Amino acid sequence: MVILKVEHLNKAFGGLVATCDVSYEMQTGELSAIIGPNGAGKSTFFNLLTGYHRADSGRVLFQGQDISNWPPHRISRLGIARAFQVSNIYLALTTYENVRQAILAQQKRTLNFFTPAHRLAKKETAELLEVAGLSQHAYMIAGNLSQGDKKRLELAIALGSKPELLFLDEPTAGMSGEETHETMGLVKRLNQEMSLTILFTEHDMSVVFGYAKRLTVLHQGAIIAEGSPEEVRSNETAQKIYLGEEA
Ligand code: ADP
Ligand code: MG
């Protein structure tokens, strides 16, 4: 079943084309990646899909419904969550409070006035902290978490809204090799065990191999290659872009 369908999406900032005629489709249950060097348009693509930017033209459909240019909160309520490349965490709150706030924001409609505040969402918060491997840091102030744990917290916050489709913008940015594989392992488990459809971006091509089933290469806002990791690795155009970046 098609969960996400993007048709001929375009976005320019002044004279700069950040998204160029992008058409893209995801099946329910997929774990896929958008890769491309810095400035390729990966974050802009996510911003367009989640309502943070307005497209100049083109359409975005979620489960068949046209959500083009809906505001972020409406898109989120529909079941799409996104973790930012730049952190979305309340640094002065504890890990626990960050996750609980995210869950409460989702449950707002069903809140009972007479439920003591500290009991709200207690079980769900503990479960999500466990899933994200953050239980032992539940009462640490989020600002004091390691970079890797902050990223995991970011993930737990995104999961708080109970999404069906999850976008992760460079989930392993700034991580060591070990942290990267831990985090990608978690992403893989979320995909397999919670049957979440996940699309993530990554600028380092080597990180995605072994995790994403399908890669889409963006360059100057346009899709220039797509396929399995092996197909993309042996794609001449993709090779040129990555070799060109290193040279
Ligand atoms: P990536 O995430 O792949 O590194 P971005 O989507 O952040 O790339 O950026 C793509 C291009 O669009 C870059 O040239 C960037 O400078 C430009 N850009 C992104 N956001 C804005 C904005 N809000 N205003 C102007 N230019 C932007
Ligand atoms: Mg980016």
Describe the structure.
The protein has about 250 residues and is of the alpha/beta class. The protein has a domain at about 1-80 and about 200-245: P-loop containing nucleotide triphosphate hydrolases (Rossmann fold), CATH 3.40.50. It has 9 helices and 10 strands. The chain has helices at about 40-50, 70-80, 95-105, 120-130, 145-160, 175-195, 205-210, 230-235, 235-245, and strands at about 1-15, 15-25, 30-35, 55-60, 65, 80-85, 165-170, 195-200, 215-220, 220-225. The protein has a 6-stranded mixed sheet with strand order 6-7-8-3-9-10, with helices on both faces. The protein has a 4-stranded antiparallel sheet with strand order 2-1-4-5, with helices on one face. Strand 4 and strand 5 (about 65) form a beta hairpin. Helix 3 crosses helix 4 and helix 3 packs parallel to helix 5 (about 145-160). The protein is globular, with a radius of gyration of 18 Å. It starts with a strand and ends with a helix. The model has no long low-confidence stretch (mean pLDDT about 90). The structure holds adenosine-5'-diphosphate and magnesium ion (MG). Adenosine-5'-diphosphate binds near residues 13, 16, 38 and 41. Adenosine-5'-diphosphate (ADP) binds near residues 13, 16 and 42.
The overall pLDDT, averaged over residues, is 89
Overall structural class, as computed from helix and strand content, comes to alpha/beta
The share of residues in helices is 25-40%
The CATH superfamily of the domain at 1-79 and 199-247 turns out to be: P-loop containing nucleotide triphosphate hydrolases
User: Compute the gyration radius: what is it?
Assistant: 18 Å
Q: In the CATH hierarchy, what is the architecture of the domain at 1-79 and 199-247 at level 2?
A: 3-Layer(aba) Sandwich
What hetero molecules are in the model?
adenosine-5'-diphosphate, magnesium ion
Distance from N terminus to C terminus (CA atoms, Å) equals: 41 Å
- Name of the CATH first level of the domain at 1-79 and 199-247: Alpha Beta
- H/I helix tally: 9
Give the tally of β-strands. Answer: 10
Strand order of the largest sheet: 6-7-8-3-9-10
**In sequence order, what are the helices and strands, one letter per element?**
EEEHEEHEHHHEHEHEEHH
Proportion of β residues? Answer: 25-35%
* Biggest beta sheet attributes: 6 strands, mixed
CATH topology of the domain at 1-79 and 199-247: Rossmann fold
Rough shape? globular
Low-pLDDT residue spans = none
